[in-house]
Amino acid sequence: MAIDEKIRRPIGQILIDGGFINKGDLALALDVQRHSNELLGQVLVNMGVLEKADLEAALSVQDHLSTLDDAIRSAAGIRKMLGSLLLLTGKLTQEQLDFALEEQKITGEKLGDILVRMGLLTGSQVDSVLRFQQFQQQGVTTPTPLRLGELLVSCGHITREQLADALKKQQISQKKLGEVLVEEGYAHLHHVNKGINLQRKLLRAVLVAVVSLSALSMEGCGGGGGVGGVSVAPSTASATISSHQGSSPLLKTNYFQISDSDYKFASIPTFYYSTDNASFWSIQASIANSITDINSRCVYRIDVQKSGAVLPELNKTFSIEGGGALEKFPGTFLLLDGKESSLKKVEQGTITFTSDSVMSDHVSGSFDVTVTDYDSQVRPAPSYYLKGVFSFKVGGYGTAS
Fold it and tell me: Domain extents for the chain?
């Protein structure tokens, strides 16, 4: 594909990439669309799985994702470290990034060069994300659909005139745009927070498009996978990780990690354990010193009920809420945040168990879900996007490493 060739990115793909909907929602909406004359976005809104304002914001980004250069130039938001941006692309996991960062301490190489050498990314993909990073917080006077002000306008929370006035006052006060909008009475705080959350999701969708367009442009040019056009073969060290691409890297066991989140959990697990008895199977991450710690507080937990002491087959992708092309997950997914009780319920998304999870003593996989915080005083209750991996020894336990 020529670099300047325009290919319109499907709105369904943008919504999936941004975490607005899951694959089950999309499959069901496409089925409904085949029997109606409605646009896909409107079908999703009618289904109640997508807010109209979120659809409008995603559509405003769509025209900027036709070429690699357009996608890169749409960059906005707080500048993030390269590793954080690469995690958002979904091309590597937190485990893989941590491994590369440890390698960087030893070799002193650039992070991008290490990831290419390990076979996790191509040189063109790393270069494209670096260019995106450079454009963040540049060209402040140039509006892009990812800028907070533009998102609030597209959602109908503020007017174009209010945004222009707030930007002028921001230059004088040097405050954050959201603060100025609230102080001037142009927007409510929850509208600003909603805009920031929307910005994160669209940032994720744009970065996924960037690496996708980068791969397509290199295919069209006959490009290889090395930095600066030099093809680099994966090292022996990368074989352990790259062989598990598309699933969870099994570099260690007894872990449950969130690699990408719109909600910062207050508590970090210190102890992991798994239960396997006649009625149910469970993997849990807790704040504890031992399995008998009386002060133990659960942080993350996944339970699967058994049928006649038989565990369902866990070697595929499930939909949390059911419906669509995916089978409903035969269990529950709880996020307790280290509290004694919580109403943070995972209501939609997918959970994937790798093919080797059928083994009697080990289970691994990943999750891509949305959790609703019913503890919040805000109504409607806010939802947060979470993505991560897990790998447990069934019936095992141990402290965090």
Answer: 11-236, 255-399
